[in-house]
Structure to design on (135 residues):
């Protein structure tokens, strides 16, 4: 189960809406081993695409080094889908390289109702998990 503050969830949705019609992406870091998403890190979609996202390699290197320096890890890796449901694509599954992370997908295909879902992805297996929003 993903426990995430409503504030962090709202920031993910705001980023997804701001980057629409392109996919948005980013990370929420937390203390190593804690499974607590705490520090929101908005990243650039290097593809600038409505159907695909990729972290800029230099930005990703900088962010991962910063997390290491702060004894953090990626607790949530998020991105948006702009025209489809919030479910990992084959490409999303193939690029999922953090087996302990929660993979959050937000669909902005509906301007009013945003779909917010979370998954665990390990060894190509996708498992949807419950999301609990906390204060």
């Amino acid at each position: 189960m993903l426990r995430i503050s409503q504030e962090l969830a709202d920031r993910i949705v705001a980023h997804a809406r701001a980057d629409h019609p392109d996919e948005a992406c980013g990370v929420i870091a937390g203390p190593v081993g804690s499974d607590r998403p705490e520090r929101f890190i908005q990243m650039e979609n290097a593809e600038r695409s409505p159907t695909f996202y990729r972290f800029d390699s230099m930005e990703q290197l900088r962010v991962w080094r910063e997390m290491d320096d702060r004894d953090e890890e990626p607790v949530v890796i998020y991105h948006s889908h702009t025209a489809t449901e919030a479910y990992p694509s084959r490409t999303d599954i193939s690029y999922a390289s953090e087996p302990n992370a929660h993979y959050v997908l937000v669909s902005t295909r509906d301007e009013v109702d945003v779909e917010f879902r979370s998954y665990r992805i390990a060894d190509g297996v996708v498992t949807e998990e419950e999301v609990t929003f906390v204060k």
